[in-house]
Amino acid sequence: MKIAVVGLGIIGGSYCKALKKYTDHYVIGINRTRSTAEKALAEGSIDKIGTPQELGSADLIILTMYPQADIDFIKENGKYIAHGALVTDASGIKTAICPRLCELAAEFGFVFVGSHPMAGKEKNGYEVSEAELYKGASFIITPCGAEQRYVDTLSNLAKSIGFSTIKITTPEEHDRMIAFTSQLPHALACAYVLSPCCPNHKGFSAGSYRDVSRVANINSSLWSELFLENKEPLTAELEQLIENLNKIINAVKAEDKKALTDILERGHRVKQSLGE
Each residue's pLDDT tens digit in the chain (276 positions)? Predict the structure, then answer.
């Protein structure tokens, strides 16, 4: 296939590098900053620097920008996309973006299938992208009513560049689970390091501090957009977390060892039962 990757940050750059390393597909890179695209071309991460006007030659278009930027890009450039071409995104939210892109697919005649590569790093940008980023990772697909053959195309492509688990779900279920598995930990980490104790942690910290604080190294602009676009599922998870923390606070204040032990043991049993 001819594959156009729009946005050459860590996710888009890693797509390009993985596609060039592990497949025979022809990769076109489209990026707002020309110098980044030139670097990708010089390194062999892409076969060509493309423009939106050249989207008509692509069999598959992968959007790897911020959610609203993905929508705006297709609004402006959907007229260039070939009829029947497959378009997917890489956004960490789905209910806010899939209906809009499905509408645009119907308007311009392409096929949209949502997807979310469950991989990344604390740092962003093309410079930290790598061909191995997706090795062993999970790839989530939201078909959005597309024919099975398009879902299969995307699934097979994901497997070819290293994804080990393909999860098919709805935009709604995706966002409920991502609120818990991804967005809540980022919110927790940021709240955790805002403690006045944090600047003095060296010498007092080991694995626990590192594990809890790791994802506080956050792209605040991107994650603010993701949080707000998924506010109801995320708010529900935050409220549940606060409720659980309040139970611990109350047990500690009351010096109720039995209640405290019960809470901690229930958490231990849940984690143990998952075999992780």
Answer: 999 999 999 999 999 999 999 999 999 999 999 999 999 999 999 999 999 999 999 999 999 999 999 999 999 999 999 999 999 999 999 999 999 999 999 999 999 999 999 998 878 899 999 999 999 999 999 999 999 999 999 999 999 999 999 999 999 999 999 999 999 999 999 999 999 999 999 999 999 999 999 999 988 998 999 999 999 999 999 999 999 999 999 999 999 999 999 999 999 999 999 987
Tell me which of 169, 204, 230 is where a domain ends. Answer: 169
What's the CATH number where 268 sits?
1.10.3660.10
- Residues with Cβ within 8 Å of residue 239, at least 6 apart in sequence: none
Q: What is the number of structural domains in the chain?
A: 2
What distance in Å separates the CA atoms of residue 190 and residue 198, rounded to the nearest whole number? 11
Which residue(s) pair with 138 in the sheet?
118, 165
At which residue do the structure tokens 């078909």 appear? 143
Instruction: Please state the pTM of the whole predicted model.
Output: 0.90
Q: Residue 64: which CATH number?
A: 3.40.50.720
Residue 29, classed as helix, strand or coil, is: strand
Q: Are residues 180 and 129 in the same domain?
A: no
CA nearest to 168, candidates 96, 114, 120, 118: 114
Do residues 183 and 246 both lie within one domain? yes
Both 181 and 59 in one domain: the answer is no
Secondary structure in 3-state letters for 241-255? HHHHHHHHHHHHHCC
Cα Rg of the chain, angstroms: 21
Integer CA distances (angstroms), 19 to 47, 139, 181, in order: 11, 15, 27
Domain of 208? Answer: 173-273
Residues 263 and 200 in one domain: yes
